[in-house]
Design goal:
GO terms for molecular function: catalase activity; heme binding; metal ion binding. The protein is an alpha+beta fold. The chain has 3 domains: about 325 residues, Catalase core domain (Catalase HpII,  Chain A, domain 1, Beta Barrel); about 80 residues, Catalase, four-helical domain (Hemocyanin, N-terminal domain); about 140 residues, Rossmann fold (3-Layer(aba) Sandwich), CATH 3.40.50. About 30% of the residues lie in helices and about 15% in strands. It is built from 17 helices and 19 strands. Strands 2, 3, 4, 5, 6, 7, 8, 9, 10 and 11 form a 10-stranded antiparallel beta sheet that branches. Helix 16 links the parallel strand 18 and strand 19. The longest helix has 17 residues. The protein is globular. The protein starts with a helix and ends in a 10-residue tail after the last helix.
């Protein structure tokens, strides 16, 4: 039996041998065996021109990539969404004929999906990653999709590199490890050998990649688009979403622990906020640039690895979006929603950004495989609110019952309908940009500066933010096994900041670079989260209390917190009610067994229990963890005395006060600050 089994295995191995391919050391070909001379750039009409449909290599590469995963999204698989409405503040007809950007009395329905990029559907919310921020506007002229991220730049400049990027940051193919993390060899090998990623890496290593909440996260359209008005005049534009609550983040240790304590933290936070009526709000901002200013900067405005510094091109706030309704069914809405940059309305158009050009192809192709065919627009969450008529018919999952015989253009049997609509009557007409050039696979010289804006970002950070970026580099690269890759990355980032590179090298055991640095001295204050809005709204406080508290006083404090839109949960020795010395009853939400410090923004210590030593130990651990994460801590009476014994009472952000009339405003102020970075740990 054993010999027969062994023989069968050998036979099977020989049969499979033909299919085993080792690509190492081989020359690049297409899937048809055609040797290719270039794999970095898509085929364009001139170095800064549009990508051509003729590019069979680009289409083969992207088509294969788009179909690599079923049924979840290849990227942005882990997502959560909500319904809402958008209202423009003022008429933008000077710049665009898009109707939803003209009438301030109109409320346009929206559907917004937030997501992580790297991990699978089962990964955690709080991982270090870029976050998707995709908005579908259901306008009277059709659906418009603004498909962006919480980071304004991207890793690559040309969409033909997107499969390579994703292959590099996904779990390594031999063992499918690690999940939802870039702390591994293949990603950093890609970074070191594709140095256009330098600017994006600085953002990913910053606190922007570990946001506190979807409600406290900026959104960016990433690409340069066009706004076109009724006269055919065009302006370049970049889109921004500015959260009303400001931009805030976790600290890394906290984010790391949250992945285990509550992997659904971000989606739960968004769902709960909407359910209790604390609707997330974001203002829409635009950076607008006249076409004649296209070449006035020392970077190419079509380069997706570059920002337009807000100090050079101010962001004009033009409207507000409010998310006010949770989904009824996660799969039917959040999972089946299909976004596409090509879903535009008259007045919004494209540019020759080669990353944008490729996405215009890729998104439709992706939906075809994910949602089973060409009729994904008929799924309720994707269906326009305005009527739609064309000669497209049949296909998988067709729901429309088309009447009549005619399904072609031009025709006489139906009076040549559905009929095209002239631009004067609201029909979409592509902006008539003059394009000329040789058919080439090349990158414009204006795209070849990879480090200046990475240095600009570094210069714009506060000392605290710089320390977090440095620590993030060390954490990620310490998980890389290849010393060669580590050294390459350190040498690469010496071009951004020499001291940063040397500090990283010192901590991961490679040679510090001897030369490097940058002559860029400019900074952009808008890039630092230290300059963001600071409000207490939407924060959650852990209230630690045991039997014998002052009921009237505690009620006053809790009511005051709620009046400032601050949520709280009560933690005590056991579930049920905890009784005050005046007979007051307070419902207990958690014990230390069912919750954790990382789930809260602040801690209020009302009264500890000297009798229950385990409770005291758990409370001490809970508070000290909040303290090490720089969170505000408040206490009155017994709680104050308890904290003084723990030797943290005189630290910044720790509010100790018996008079609740003085305690409440000071504690709210401490909560508004988000974190107290000047706190020194003893």
């Amino acid at each position: 039996m054993n010999d027969r089994k062994k023989g069968n295995e050998n036979s099977k191995n020989e049969q499979l041998e033909f299919f085993r391919v080792d690509d190492r050391g081989k020359k690049l070909t297409t899937n048809q065996g055609l040797k290719m001379s270039e794999d970095e750039f898509s085929l364009k009409a001139g170095e800064r021109g549009p990508t051509l449909m003729e590019d069979f290599h680009f289409r083969e590469k992207l088509t294969h990539f788009d179909h690599e995963r079923i049924p979840e999204r290849v990227v942005h698989a882990r997502g959560f969404a909500a319904h809402g409405e958008f209202q423009v503040y003022k008429n933008m007809e000077k710049y665009t004929k898009a109707k939803f950007l003209q009438d301030s009395s109109v409320k346009t329905p929206v559907f917004v999906r937030f997501s992580t990029v790297n991990g699978s559907r089962g990964s955690a919310d709080s991982v270090r990653d870029a976050r998707g921020f995709a908005t579908k506007f259901y306008t009277e002229e059709g659906n418009y999709d603004l498909v962006g991220n919480n980071i304004p730049v991207f890793f690559i400049q040309d969409a033909i590199k997107f499969p390579d990027l994703v292959h590099a940051f996904k779990p390594e193919p031999d063992n499918e490890i690690p999940q939802a993390s870039t702390a591994h060899d293949t990603f950093w090998d890609f970074v070191a050998n594709n140095q256009e990623s330098a600017h994006m890496i600085m953002w990913i290593m910053s606190d922007r990649a570990i946001p506190r909440s979807f409600r406290m996260m900026e959104g960016f359209g990433v690409h340069t688009f066009r706004l076109v008005n009724d006269d055919g005049k065009a302006h370049f534009v970049k889109f921004h979403w500015k959260p009303i609550l400001g931009v805030h983040s976790f600290v890394w240790d906290e984010a790391h622990e949250l992945a285990g304590r509550d992997p659904d933290f971000h989606r739960r936070d968004l769902w709960d906020a909407i359910e209790r009526g604390d609707y997330p709000e974001y203002e829409l901002g635009v950076q607008i640039l006249p076409e004649e200013d296209e070449f006035k900067f020392n970077f190419d405005i079509l380069d997706a690895t570059k920002i337009w510094p807000e100090e050079d091109v101010p962001v004009e706030i033009i409207g507000k979006m409010t998310l006010n309704r949770n989904v009824d069914n996660f799969f039917a809405e959040t999972e089946q929603v299909a976004f596409h940059l090509g879903h535009v309305v008259p007045g919004i158009d494209f540019t020759n950004d080669p990353l944008l050009q490729g996405r215009l192809f890729s998104y439709t192709d992706t939906q075809l495989i994910r949602l089973g065919g060409p009729n994904f627009h008929e799924i309720p969450i994707n269906r326009p609110v305005c009527p739609f008529h064309n000669n497209q018919r049949d296909g998988y999952h067709r729901q429309t019952i088309n009447l009549g015989k005619v399904s072609y253009h031009r025709n006489s049997l139906a009076g040549n309908t559905p009929a095209p609509v002239s631009p004067e009557e609201g029909g979409f007409a592509t902006y008539q940009e003059k394009v000329e050039g040789r058919k080439v696979r090349a990158r414009s010289e204006s795209f070849k500066d990879h480090f200046s804006q990475a240095t600009l970002f570094w210069n714009s950070m506060s000392p605290v933010e710089k320390s977090h970026i440095t620590e993030a580099f060390v954490f990620e690269l310490a998980h890389v096994k290849s010393d060669s890759v580590k050294q390459q990355v350190v040498d690469m980032f010496a071009n951004v900041n020499l001291e940063l590179a040397r500090t990283i090298a010192d901590n991961i055991g490679v040679n510090p670079p001897k030369s490097g640095g940058s002559n860029v001295t400019k900074s952009s204050p808008a890039l630092s989260q230290m300059n963001t809005v600071k409000k207490p709204n939407g924060r959650k406080v852990a209230v630690i209390v045991t039997e014998g508290y002052n009921g009237a006083e505690l009620k006053y404090v809790l009511d005051s917190l709620k009046s400032n839109d601050i949520q709280y949960e009560v933690i005590s020795e056991k579930l049920g009610n905890v009784t005050g010395r005046d007979g007051a009853q307070l419902k207990v939400d958690h014990t230390f067994l069912t919750t954790d410090s990382v789930l809260y923004d602040a801690v209020y210590m009302v009264r500890g229990s000297a009798k229950n030593m385990k409770f005291n130990r758990d409370a001490a651990r809970f508070i000290y963890e909040a303290f090490t994460h720089y969170k505000p801590i408040g206490a009155t009476h017994d709680g104050k005395d308890w904290l003084k014994k723990d030797k943290i009472g005189n630290s910044p952000g720790v509010v100790l006060e018996d008079d609740v009339n003085r305690f409440v405003p000071e504690f709210v102020k401490a909560i508004s600050a988000h974190r107290h970075w000047d706190r020194q740990l003893s």
